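Take a careful look at the sequence and tokenised backbone pasted below. I need to know what the token row says about the fold.
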Amino acid sequence: MLDSLSYIPHPSTPNAELATHFTDLAPPLNARQAAIESARCLYCYDAPCTRICPSEIDVASFIRNIHDRNVDGAALGILKQNILGGSCARVCPTEILCEDACVRNHDAEGQPVKIALLQRYALDNMSFTEHPFRRARPTGRKIAVVGAGPAGLSCAHRLAMLGNDVVIFEAQDKAGGLNEYGIAKYKLTNDFAQKEVDFLLGIGGIEIRHGQRLGDNLHLKDLHANYDAVFLGIGLGASRALKLTGEDAPGLLAAVDYIAALRQADDLAALPVPERALVIGAGNTAIDMAVQIQRLGAQEVTLVYRRGFDAMSATHHEQEIAKANQVRMVTWAQPQQVLLDGYGRVRGMRFEKTREDGNRLVGTGETFEIAADAVFKAIGQTMADASLADPLATLLQRDGDRIHVDDRFRTALPGIYAGGDCVAPGQDLTVQAVQHGKLAALAIHTDLQATLEAA
């Protein structure tokens, strides 16, 4: 995966010390802190925090349960709506969602209730003696779910709860999707993503088959023929191209590939770490990449974006994380040319300064260069061509590079549903993917029951 960086040296810092750079970004609350923080909640009748939550968690209710020392009740309330609530509490941009909507933001106090940390507290400290969810009576239906990321896992769990049997087909060796392979190591630490998957599978009725890649050794036409319904939670598996000469040169690769290798590494000191790193992009992945390579020991990390800070998709909170980790951020500059050394390897990049002309971004003609030993592109993901390559998959209606679905997550093909990052519209949020999977499961179950009753 990191062959493009094979000539880059490894850190001189030992693994044990590097690991200390990837502890929790936000340390958990203890019981006393959770009690104090939950007491700050006003338990609003028309709680704006609940209304804005993509997964419809009753925020005020679970916080009141924490205040009343009913941690299991709080956890159950969260998990009923969001079975991956533990990871969402760690990675969800609550600063622009529930915490931004908190009424505490609009008084002299100006500090929202720490909803994410309270949600994490509830789920980290729950102590159920048995799995909190039980399956309904068997329906005799079997559904195929493609992709064991947040959307697919959420869909599978809800379908299983409703009495259906589910087989998840996953390309990778581990389930979890971006939670396992794509989130900054300091946000989801240790093996939390796998523990959450194991808990989810405790409902029963869900089988995961690994090494199954749609368009390769797995075909939609076969799934459609052999299962009562199919849910596609395939995400966006390919990185967008810069479309520059030299993009395939050693030293230039997708940020998501490096992040995946970092998250799976047993020895952080064995990773290639450039002395000077360039990150191209403006989203959370770009921030995650820049901060992590800095924490691994890169001496100079520069993030470059073609527009201004206000246009970055990474939240202000994420931008502040980058600044706190000494990441240099350069705006109003777009890649123009990959610069190579005498061996054909990356030595930097030439950029053209940009400006806005009305609603259009235009180049100014002025250029500058930034030296780098490696360049990581984080300019967005797109659908992998092979994913929807079989004859049946080509009939799926697309909105750009995403699958078109109706308001019940049905695709243009009867019996085939989709959700998560692979559908339009989407916010590319873990919490939204979980909600898509949950709602799609309800739609699949309802449609199958209606078919049964009609027969």
